[in-house]
Design goal:
The complex is a heterodimer.
Chain A: H1 2-30, H2 38-48, H3 52-69, H4 71-80, H5 82-101, H6 108-138, H7 167-191, H8 194-225, H9 231-235, H10 241-258, H11 262-284, E1 287-289, E2 299-300, H12 301-304, H13 308-335
Antiparallel strand pairs in A: 1-2
Chain B: H1 3-42, H2 45-79, H3 81-115, H4 122-151, E1 156-158, E2 164-166, H5 169-173, H6 176-207, H7 211-247, H8 249-256, E3 262-263, E4 267-274, E5 279-286, H9 289-295, E6 301-302, H10 317-346, H11 354-362, H12 365-382, E7 385-387, E8 391-392, H13 403-434, H14 441-448
Antiparallel strand pairs in B: 1-2, 3-6, 4-5, 7-8
Helix pairs in contact in B: 1-2, 1-4, 1-6, 1-13, 2-3, 2-13, 3-4, 4-6, 6-7, 6-11, 6-12, 7-8, 7-10, 8-10, 8-12, 10-12
Classes of the chains: A mainly alpha, B mainly alpha.
Chain lengths: 347, 449
């Protein structure tokens, strides 16, 4: 029971991270080409300036929660995905610094450099996150002791000894890239105005079309690479609602965008991300990290779970703390609601 | 180079660089609250501008703290997997609580504090400053709880699979080691904040610009500096040292360079520990003082390294010894400097005494060195244990990550952090050059002076 609860609590943290940091990653990607003047660039950045740091906290809090609830999974996955995780860390460092330093520098050449770093780091992070999720869904070559180490690539084929990047995980990366770019465009359509807003809106439909195609390809790919992903769905057919939810959410993005209801379109995109992640979690549950080396080596819930007292104590403070955290998040977003400030930084 | 060494260097390098930033965040956070409070109560525009100036520096510093802090939480898993697997049920708890209770609070109110001044009331803006400060101190608390458990494991049991399990949540959080270390560490952070603020003030006064702000900064820095430099020695350092002596005799012996158990042990002020001969070379010793400091009597016996099995000696003995001596030596200098400065402030001579302003200006790097040396003392004193008495460092690193892969990312971090260090220096230099009137410098500076 505790395992079930903590599995889904960790999943909630991941969804929270992807939905929230997702749009500021998306804005980062769009920042590469969408804004044309310095004022437009500032408008883009101000739409995420007060919140990006808080959005990244979901990653940290999620990582910490994973650490104490499933220590074996945390230890095995973090050491096994050593190289890509370190690259992700470097990207997070570069991106955060580039974004924040833009407020403190006023030399055009350096601003261009910071813009480039910020945008490229955002794009690469989106790709890495998608590839990371795909790695989990595909499985990794777990040894008998529950550990593994993956090279960045081998022959680009999923199999018993794959690399971080193979054709399947690259598709996962592209899905994330397009999905988060769309998510960011929808956020901008709420937060900015005038010419910039209409340019963001014009991007939405092409992105949506690409996302639908990639989503379908990735679903087929998942079933091809790990057919047992469908087992839970066959056992509980009602859960086939998840793929329909994915499609309905995409339809919602299209419909609300067409009717100029940007907030609802953005929420639809959030629902899309939620269903994609929930569907993926359900596809592996109750395994946490599948083994390509035989199912008896899977890292399962019962194998990775912490001790009972740790988990029950954790549940008490977690619920209390996350209630507070959600209250802060709601408060901050309500203070900064409406169009982003465009009249320069206040610090 | 063994994988163990690489993983140790990896963590040591990234955490040492990281902690340069949070110590200022935590110290300055408190001082900004002081500035904001005076501004709010007096309605003074100058104190408000003073706080806004420090908020800009705080903002830059905070971001560097965040981006260098994210890797730390990951490195438990990436570089210390076997340790994490066994200890996650205990120390994963405070680490997750840091995220849930501190980072959400801190980031939410930092956004309001830095970006929201026009959207919220003055009182709410003051409140945001308080929450940011509080968030940073809560964050520090959970990190200390984590470290304290590795230094002095309490409130745990072992599950059949070898994992550690919490048996008492409150005993874990209120680990006496952690409380003592927390007081000592936070005082150290306030020292960094005070010295930095006083140094900027001294710079303006010596340079003859922004004089009014120079006085505010020097005054606040010196008063906070006097209080914190006294507290760092007594009671926090004193109590913490005695507790370490009780529970980690090997660490104390290594820190003091005490090779032989002695009654009425003397304290070594200067000298080089020689592991081969088991003696201090070129020693300058004050008799009986160590016994007195630890046990309150000059006759007490202090355990030396001779009573400790060789395989439990701190593994980097000379470095431990030097770290401790650097920390303690600088701490003594700090209190002398701040007493002198506070005396001149009281006699209303501080702002014109160029010699002490010069000392205040050039002393700002020393608290960074002292804080770093203090942490090196704590962590190298713990060696060769990862969890004191329970798990050796050699048993905890990620065995699947080879030395080659570890060195690859260590070099990557070194390059990246060299760049960050340069950027930080340039940005802070720029803010200080612009001064508290950075938006329209020329006109306002002329008017204010």
């Amino acid at each position: 029971m505790m395992g079930f609860i903590w599995f889904w609590l960790v999943a909630v943290m991941i969804v929270g991270y992807v939905v929230l940091d997702g749009f500021d990653l998306g804005v980062g990607i769009l920042h590469l080409f969408l804004p044309r003047t310095e004022a437009e660039k500032r408008a883009c950045l101000h739409s995420i300036g007060p919140v990006w740091d808080g959005n990244e906290v979901w990653l940290l809090a999620g990582g910490g929660t994973l650490y104490f609830a499933f220590p074996l999974l945390y230890a095995s996955a973090f050491s096994g995905f050593y190289l890509p995780l370190m690259i992700v860390l470097w990207l997070l460092v570069l991106r955060g610094v580039a974004l924040e330093l833009r407020n403190h520098i006023d030399v055009g050449v350096w601003l261009s450099l910071l813009d480039g770093v910020f945008g490229l780091a955002s794009a690469l992070l989106a790709i890495f996150y998608g590839a990371a999720l795909a790695n989990v869904l595909r499985g990794v070559p777990l040894q008998a002791d529950g550990y593994f180490f993956l090279p960045l690539w081998t022959n680009f084929q999923p199999g018993v000894h794959p690399g971080i990047l193979d054709w399947y995980t690259v598709i996962g990366g592209l899905v994330a890239l397009v999905a988060l770019t769309l998510h960011g465009a929808l956020w901008l359509s709420i937060k900015v105005s005038a010419e910039l807003q209409s340019r963001a809106c014009r991007l939405i439909n092409p992105l949506l079309l690409g996302l639908i195609l990639l989503t379908v390809v990735s679903l087929i790919g998942t079933i091809a690479v790990r057919p047992v992903s469908l087992d839970n769905y066959h056992r509980y057919p009602v859960t086939f609602v998840v793929p329909f939810g994915v499609l309905a959410a995409l339809a919602g993005v299209w419909w609300f965008n067409r009717n100029r209801q940007p907030v609802k379109a953005f929420l639809s995109s959030s629902v899309y991300l939620f269903f994609m992640l929930a569907g993926a979690c359900w596809g592996v549950y109750p395994t946490l990290l599948p083994a390509t080396t035989g199912t008896d080596r899977d890292i399962t819930l019962s194998r990775a779970i912490s001790g009972p007292h740790t988990l029950s104590v954790g549940l008490a403070w977690w619920l209390f703390g996350m209630t507070l955290a959600v209250a802060y998040v709601v408060f901050v977003y309500s203070r900064f609601k409406g169009k982003a400030d465009t009249d320069g930084a206040t610090h | 180079m063994t994988p163990e060494l690489i993983h140790r260097l990896h963590f040591a390098f990234t955490i040492t660089f990281h902690y340069l930033f949070p110590q200022l965040t935590m110290g300055l956070g408190l001082l900004i609250v002081v500035l904001k409070t005076v501004a709010l109560r007096s309605g003074s525009e100058e104190w408000d501008r003073a706080s806004r100036f420090w908020a800009r520096i705080f903002g830059i510093n905070f971001v560097f703290g965040v981006v260098t802090g994210i890797p730390m939480e990951f490195e438990f898993g990436t570089n210390w997997a076997r340790f994490s697997q066994l200890s996650g049920g205990v120390i994963g708890q405070p680490l997750a609580m840091e995220g849930v209770f501190s980072f959400f609070l801190e980031s939410a109110f930092l956004g309001l504090f830095l970006y929201g001044e026009k959207r919220i009331s003055k009182r709410m803006h003051w409140f945001s400053a308080v929450m940011v400060w509080l968030g940073s101190w809560i964050s520090g608390f959970f990190i200390i709880v984590t470290d304290a458990w590795m230094q002095h494991p309490v409130a745990y049991s072992r599950l059949p699979n070898g994992q550690f399990e919490v048996v008492s949540f409150w005993k874990l959080l209120l680990n006496p080691w952690g409380l003592l270390q927390y007081m000592h560490n936070m005082t150290g952070a306030v020292i960094t904040g005070s010295f930095v603020m006083a140094a900027v003030g001294a710079f303006y006064l010596l340079d003859g610009r922004n004089k009014h702000y120079g006085r505010i900064f020097t005054r606040v820095g010196v008063i906070a500096g006097l209080i914190s430099t006294i507290l760092i020695i007594f009671p926090t350092g004193d109590l913490h040292g005695k507790y370490v002596a009780k529970h980690q005799p090997a660490a104390i012996a290594g820190m003091e360079g005490l090779f032989k158990t002695e009654t009425g042990a003397g304290i070594v002020l200067i000298g080089q520990p020689n592991e081969e001969t088991g003696e201090i070379d070129n020693p300058l010793v004050v008799n009986n003082v160590l016994s007195f400091l630890i046990y309150g009597t000059t006759k007490a016996e202090v355990t030396g390294l001779d009573r400790i099995p060789r395989d439990q000696w701190p593994s980097a003995l000379p470095l431990l010894y030097y770290s401790y001596h650097i920390m303690a030596g600088l701490g003594t200098y700090f209190v002398a400097l701040m007493i002198a400065a506070a005396f001149l402030l009281w006699r209303k001579k501080l702002y014109a005494s160029r010699w002490i302003l010069w000392l205040l200006l050039i002393s700002f790097p020393f608290p960074y060195i002292a804080n770093t040396a203090g942490w090196m003392t704590a962590e190298m004193g713990r060696q060769p244990w990862l969890i004191y008495g329970l798990m050796r460092t050699s048993e905890g690193y990620s065995h699947v990550v080879s030395a080659g892969n570890g060195l690859f990312t260590l070099i990557g971090f070194m390059g990246l952090y060299a760049l960050l260090g340069l950027l930080f220096t340039v940005l802070i230099y720029r803010e200080i050059s612009h001064g508290p009137h950075s938006r329209v410098p020329e006109v306002n500076t002329a008017m204010a002076d």
